[in-house]
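Researcher: Final request for today, and then I'll write up notes for the group meeting. The sequence and the SMILES for manganese (II) ion follow.
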Amino acid sequence: MKLPSTALRQVERHCAQRILAPGHPSPASRLAPSSPPTCLQASRRQAASVPSNGKLLASRTYATVSAAELQFGQPVHETHPHILKPGELTPGIDAEEYVMRRAALVSLLPESSAVVLPSATLKYRSGAVFYAFRQESNFFYLTGFAEPEALAVITKENDTKEYHNHGFTLLCRPKDPAAEQWSGPWSGLQAARDVFNADIGWSIHKMESLLPDLVRGAKYIYTDTTNTTLTSQLRQANPSASIRPVNQHTNTLRAIKSPAEIACMRTAGKATGRSFTKAMRKPWSREAKLSAFLDYEFIKNGGDGQAYVPVVAGGSRGNMIHYTLNNAAIEPDQMVLVDAGAEYGTYISDVTRTWPVSGRFTDAQKDLYNAVLKVQRTGVALCRASANLTLDEIHRITDRELKEQLQLLGFDVSGDAMGILFPHHVGHYVGLDVHDVPGYGRDIKLRPGHCVTIEPGVYVPNDERWPAHFRGMAIRIEDSVAVDEEGPIVLTTEGVKEVVDIEALRDL
Ligand SMILES: [Mn+2]
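Model: Predicted protein-manganese (II) ion complex:
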């Protein structure tokens, strides 16, 4: 059973009308005083009015719908209108875009294929203390469903090019009001169909017995699971199918961002840039306090929180590329290197700024900073399809320019110098993941929709090989950028980076 696209649109339109209707009495008000009725309720009401064999279909009334059934395991528009607009399944992304992603994936696969995607599992920090749950990226990209204990199966039966060329089954936790009373709500099987547009919503607890039905007739099973139990269950369920990895196909799709995805990354970038600029206005003497300030400001400025454990490194600690202890004191004459980013709707931004905590650059700090900034601007300007370059080629161009700049500042750049002073790549793809679409090469020509970072850096060891006034300094400047045909779209432009702009922040 497939939900025709027209039905999907009808459901969405119906819900939009229900929500927009001013002063419409809300029978659900006893349970959710400030919320308009959900799609779920709207469709139930519709069903109740359709005669079946001359009788009204049996339907539960509002009085019998438990509070747990009106709550979901993640924000939906009806319960969190401050987070999601009508029609959005996750922040910034419409339900329809998720359908299109599944359709695009199966269009890359041969007939008689089944894609099997297990959700991420909850990770424990110690004992019963768990980390915040984060959905597996491909699962999230294709379903928008943000809960653990779930399995998505997307099937392709024939090679039609239609909008609905696939089947979508979502196995998840069935509603359990007593358990949800303890753990908080989850979405349940009805929501798998009505909210997440699965053709079928089944209990994850019955997965093993359902697998033969789910992959029956498939000649190819696409999965990246490392769960050996699931792999052997799949082999048992359909011994003649060949099991193949799916990530090269999901990478092809995920590497090129849609306008809605770029808008999410812009929202994340704006929150990040504004927070950085605000942080630069203040004197900081503790890495930990600066880190906590950004954590709070990211959310205050419209993000959902930190996308990754940040680097907040005072002075020479910036020379440790992935320093994340973030607990030392910062001296007033030092610079601080901060690599941090907010996320929005699970889309990330990745930003680095380096600035003097006093608010004023010394001459040596300014010289080295401007050398890196010049190279960073060169790299950003090349993030356009018309330049016909790969990330690897942009790396080589920026490495060469940085070498020239450092030579002008008196560095001996012979031999292995650049490998020490600039030991990492100038950029990587960004998206749902910080190092997005793992396995997707940096030798691919940049095209509109690619989103990348440009982040040259200089890390001067504290030894006699290098000019004395630069020793121990670490500077990296990084923006997240969407590639367009004729120019870059800098997603993180609110984070100031010119010397005069950073210094002017203290004049206000
Ligand atoms: Mn980065």
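Model: Residues 256-504 form a domain with the Creatine Amidinohydrolase fold (CATH 3.90.230.10). The chain has two domains: 5-253, 256-504.
Researcher: Thanks, that's everything.
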